[in-house]
Amino acid sequence: MNKREAVLSVLDRSRPQRYVPAAFFTHFDPACHFGQAAVAQHLEFFRATGMDFVKIQYERKFPALAEICRPADWARVPRYGKEFFAPVLEAVDGLVQAAGGEALVVMTLYSPFMCAGHTAGPERLVAHLQEEPEAVRPGLEAITDSLMVFVQECIRLGVDGFYHSTQGGEAGRFADPALFTEYVKPYDLILMREANRRCRFNILHVCDYHLGYEDLTPFLDYPGQVVNCSPHVGSRTLTPGEIAALFNRPFMGGLERKGVLATGSPEQVRAAARQVLQNAPEQFILAADCTVPPGTPWENLRAAIEEAHQYRQ
Predict the structure, then answer these.
(1) Total tally of structural domains belonging to the chain
(2) Number of Cα atoms under 13 Å in the Cβ half of residue 135
(3) What secondary structure does DSSP assign to 197-253, as a single string?
(4) Residue 40 Cα to chain centre, angstroms
(5) Where residue 233 sits, what CATH number does that domain have?
(6) What is the pLDDT of residue 144?
(7) What is the domain range of residue 307?
(8) Rounded CA gap, 76 and 280, in Å?
(9) If we measure between CA atoms, which residue out of 53, 23, 52, 54 comes closest to residue 41?
(10) Which one of 46, 49, 75, 147 is separated from 293 by 20 to 30 angstroms, measured CA to CA?
């Protein structure tokens, strides 16, 4: 199998998975965020680590709008066209052309809630949603419309799917959890359903980069062929098999982004990867729980990936 077939085989529950794919992601230097510089850096990382699909980092944050001071000001959020996303789309086009024949190309997609946080700051966004959520809705709708333009352009350029990162349902984010259900989740689903309808390989990423979760239940009906999340849920630490069973789909993860990957030696990483693989479900992709910190040694990532590739051979 080539890398495309190897990753897609994870979705086939009718036969044993003889090859365990693996992939890790990191943010690159700002000089390599867009255009051909991003293409070159992503390809170098892909080749150096031996990972099994290309995951394009999203670095085009929505502009901060100082004029959003009150909930009613969210009506001022503009809709951005494909010109706004052009630097990212240039990288998407280049990576699909360069690597799409050998590996799946997956685009990172931040949720409307996350992009609204770029627009006015996450603290102000949460405060306004708690104060007057209906006034914030037009802004969330505008951001969702803008992201839909981006999604459709990425699909037109040939991506195989999206790594959809969602936040908003973390413990302590909202005093009233209904705010997530009514003002965050619906906009996630608009984009994810479009991606799921048109792409064959989408990853649901329940992001805990800032806060943890007490409950993953609100995300169980999110689309996506694969789920990636932290195993730490409330006071429990779930196994990869438990997460796969909970979401009824393959799990991608197993290693902590700030753990041995970032701080250990390649030999220590191999040992940690073997321990994860010994307890992994049949359909599984070895990865971290989120983006690994900048400066994480690439040789550590390669060591983990090699261990996954060799494990069932």
Answers:
(1) 1
(2) 15
(3) HH-S--EEEE--SSS-BS--GGGTT---SEEEE-SEETTEE--HHHHHHHHTS-EEE
(4) 21
(5) 3.20.20.210
(6) 98
(7) 3-311
(8) 48
(9) 54
(10) 147
How crowded is residue 235: how many other Cβ atoms within 10 Å of its Cβ? 6
What order do you get walking across the sheet with 53-56 strand by strand? 53-56, 104-110, 161-166, 203-206, 226-229, 251-255, 284-288
Residue-wise pLDDT tens digits, 233-255 = 999 999 999 999 999 999 999 99
Q: Tally the residues of the chain.
A: 313
Give one word for 242, left, alpha or beta, with left for phi > 0 and alpha for psi -120 to 50. Answer: alpha
pTM: 0.96
Report yes or no: 25 and 291 within 8 Å, Cβ to Cβ: yes
Distance CA 27, CA 81 (A): 25
Asked if pLDDT for residue 183 goes beyond 90, the answer is: yes
* Cα 259 from Cα 154, distance rounded (Å): 33
